[in-house]
Design goal:
The complex is a heterodimer of chains A (about 300) and B (about 230).
Chain A lengths: L1 H19 L1 H38 L1 E6 L5 H12 L4 E7 L1 H11 L1 H8 L9 E6 L5 H9 L4 E5 L2 H42 L2 H9 L4 H19 L1 H17 L14 H32 L2
Antiparallel strand pairs in A: 1-3, 1-4, 2-3
Chain B lengths: L3 E9 L5 E10 L4 E5 L6 H8 L7 E6 L2 E2 L8 H5 L2 E4 L11 H11 L4 H14 L15 H13 L5 E5 L7 H17 L3 E5 L3 H7 L2 E6 L2 E6 L11
Parallel strand pairs in B: 3-8, 3-9, 6-7, 7-8
Antiparallel strand pairs in B: 1-2, 1-4, 4-5, 9-10
Helix pairs in contact in B: 3-4, 3-5, 4-5, 5-6
Classes of the chains: A alpha+beta (about 300), B alpha/beta (about 230).
Chain lengths: ~300, ~230
């Protein structure tokens, strides 16, 4: 019961003191606003980079041509063999006949060329999709080992370079993001420390009149929470509306049609939630760190 | 067992300065004791040890049956709840009113609001500030601010009232009034009072027990002492 009373009072005092020490609280709130805005924008960029690389990776696949002697029955058997290889997501069969009609449709001059042949000169094929671009090479090699395979290719060098570039880009975004979150935590908690420094006499008096450590820490922890949360309001508004507007203006893609932006609904709200949570948590822990310094006991 | 018992207490700071050397003293419940001595004589360290702001390097400090020297950091607050402290610089919270400053001590302890009010009003009445409950510290005179500090110190009805130069910032007339308040608390509430002071006039007039500390050593313990017996201090 006593603990609940202390918690209740701490929440009340937290709000009171944010407004009583308004100029100092404002400094902490502004610091949180600016840093969280930077973090939010970075989250948006990182999310989109991740999305773009993933969707580009999905476009990567292996084209397998079957030997001329392969029958339709062989093709079906090969299909199930390929499907059994690890990391293979999908195998699409495309017979030489469907290639022929597709090509003729695309350009009638192909049709004229094909008429000169007695047999269909094309080969039956599979388009193999893998679930992980890094396994392209391994899967291709395994397919080549199978019988009745004329060739299996995925664009080797270009694709390998692309995959490693994506890898570097993804890792860099994660490192930058983590570093940014640390910097934000450091900046916000230091500003809050300054706010609390000016109130160390309050902490000293609380200690001298016999306030338990928990009773002393709680109001400051809640205050940090409130400051962090207030600091996240502007970044959330800017990011939610900013992204929705940017998405509409850019028609959902950037630079080329291939690089698609993540659809704003859900995505911006998740980012908003992350920002609010980050602000509140950093505020709380920042305050706790600062109070501990003056608690001594 | 005596209420306060210091046995062979030594205190050496990390800088190498020895503040107290082999100090032993006993104080009974309900006593009124002055602690006098030069600046840097060790009397502040002595006072701070009683409410565990400082820990002895050697020896034991027993307050109300508890060995303060061995008290864990986490438990210190329990000791402080039994002790009221009055400071030379009042240490009031500038943004709280008189009532709020006094109630603050009880709120820290997690008391119910309906229990807090009568206790606070009683403490404010004892120090004679009933008319100023809604004033802020900056609207009060030095003497009035010290009264608020005393009210805050006694609001939880402590067994021990520690006063560290309570009249140091006040004029002689106001000092007299403050001493009257503290003396009444000692008499009426049977609170043990230990007071560090430089104020010769007060010590001479009150004729209470006097402990003289010089260079960290207890050199005098006079039952009805005064500054006259050691004019050089």
């Amino acid at each position: 019961m006593k603990m609940f009373r202390i918690i209740g009072r701490s929440i009340r005092d937290a709000f009171k003191s944010v407004f009583r020490n308004f100029s100092l609280s404002m400094a902490s709130i502004l610091c949180a606003t600016i840093t969280l805005l930077v973090v939010g924008i970075s989250l948006i960029i990182a999310g989109n980079i991740d999305n773009a690389t993933k969707s580009l990776e999905k476009e990567l696949n292996i084209v397998v041509y079957l030997d001329k002697s392969a029958t339709e029955y062989d093709a079906m058997e090969l299909k199930s063999k390929i499907e059994a290889i690890a990391n293979v997501e999908k195998v699409e069969y495309k017979s030489k006949e469907s290639w022929k009609s597709e090509m003729s449709e695309y350009n009638p001059s192909f049709g004229t060329v094909f008429e000169n042949y007695e047999d269909n000169p094309l080969l039956d094929s599979f388009v193999v999709t893998v679930n992980n671009s890094k396994s392209l090479d391994k899967v291709t090699k395994q397919i080549r080992e199978l019988e009745l395979i004329e060739s299996a290719n995925y664009g080797e060098d270009t694709v390998n370079t692309m995959v490693s570039v994506f890898d570097v880009v993804k890792k860099t975004t994660i490192v930058v993001l983590i570093a940014l979150i640390f910097v934000t935590a450091f900046l916000i908690s230091n500003t809050i420390k300054l706010t609390i420094y000016s109130r160390r006499s309050e902490i000293e008096i609380m200690r001298l009149v016999g306030g338990s450590n928990a009773a002393i820490k709680l109001p400051f922890v809640f205050e940090g929470f409130v400051i962090g949360l207030l600091g996240s309001i502007i970044p959330i508004i800017v990011i939610v509306y900013g992204y929705i507007i940017a998405f509409e203006r850019l028609d959902g893609h950037i630079i080329t049609d291939i690089i698609k932006l993540i659809s704003p609904y859900n995505f911006v709200f998740i980012i908003a939630g992350i920002i609010a949570l980050l602000g509140a948590l950093i505020g709380m822990f920042g305050s706790l760190r600062a109070v501990r310094k003056y608690l001594k006991v | 067992m005596k209420f306060i018992e210091l046995k062979n207490v030594n205190k050496t700071y990390s800088t190498g300065v020895t503040a107290l050397a082999d100090l032993s003293v006993e104080i009974e419940k309900g006593e009124f004791v002055f602690v006098i001595g030069h600046t840097a004589s060790g009397k502040s360290t002595f006072i701070k040890m009683l409410y565990r702001e400082e820990k002895p390097t050697k020896g034991s400090v027993i307050v109300g049956g508890v060995n303060v020297a061995k008290l864990r950091n986490r438990k210190v607050y329990k000791l402080r709840r039994k002790i009221g402290v009055v400071f030379q610089d009042f240490k009031l919270l500038p943004k709280l009113t008189v009532y709020e400053n006094v109630a603050f001590a009880l709120e820290c302890l997690g008391l119910k609001a309906k229990d807090i009010k009568p206790k606070v009003m009683k403490a404010i009445e004892i120090v004679g500030l009933k008319e100023k409950t809604r004033s802020f510290p900056h609207q009060l005179s030095g003497g009035e601010q010290q009264r608020v500090c005393i009210a805050r110190a006694i609001v939880n009805e402590p067994k021990l009232l520690i006063c560290d130069e309570p009249t140091g910032n006040l004029d002689p007339e106001t000092s007299k009034e403050i001493m009257k308040v503290i003396s009444n608390i000692n008499k009426d509430l049977k609170t043990t009072v230990i007071m560090a002071t430089h104020d010769k006039e007060i010590v001479n007039r009150m004729k209470k027990r006097v402990l003289l500390i010089e260079h960290g050593v207890l050199t005098g313990d006079y039952l009805k002492g005064s500054y006259k017996s050691h004019e050089n201090v």
